[in-house]
Amino acid sequence: MSDLAAERWGTSGPRVVMVHGSLSSAATAFAEQKVLADRYQIVAPYRRGYSPSPHTDTIDPDRDAAEIAELLCDGAHLVGTSMGGVVAMRAAALAPDQVRSLTVIEPPAMPNGAGRPVADDLIAALSAYWAGADSSDLPGFAAGFLEILGIDLVLPSPLPPPLEEAIRNLTTERPWLTGAPAAELAPAPFPKLVVTGGGTPGFEEVADALADELLAKRVLFDGSPHAVQRIGARFNEELVAHFESADRAGSAYSS
Q1: Domain 6-115+173-248, what fold?
Q2: What is the pLDDT of residues 15-32, one digit of tens each?
């Protein structure tokens, strides 16, 4: 079994596994979803490299996906935000029979958007940035990364240890190379939902491409942050409707 630490909210109802992104953690990424614990059993793991889960020198999305797949147990709704969305899609491809529904929130699955002009520009910008940035300057690296994405976020100084750890992990990622297995996921019968907030045009094109490839529902909460789930009630209503639709359709696979 996975040795990842996890937040666990709720004791009854369908299981939901929520996967955080690069500059966040389980508790902070999904704080607005804790209110759903009255009807779902939510498991929000800390990906490897994010305390209190075990340390790693290099983030490996495939290893992450295998560990997330173990948490699906007899069946779960699967939700991933940012890089956690890429991990969630790879996990769903590993264990499609255990997925009730799939929701991804602005996943940086850049190869899936290749060939679309704004996505191509973002791919080039990210690749060039990693090639030239000083990865030992963690505040500077994160600030430059956020600037490329058009995310207006002032980092605290000094960096708190969890954020320092998260940025160090980010320096080992290669988002312009980290695609999602859309061709494998498209024929899977569970419903798919792709959500964005409108802040990063390149991510919008990637999301459009994924929605086309996955035959997924596409939802834009325009003016929302990159981590759209943080808007709370409006996102939660869409998410619950997605879960309930999947369950009504009998998309949950038997164990």
Answers
A1: Rossmann fold (3.40.50)
A2: 999 999 999 999 999 999
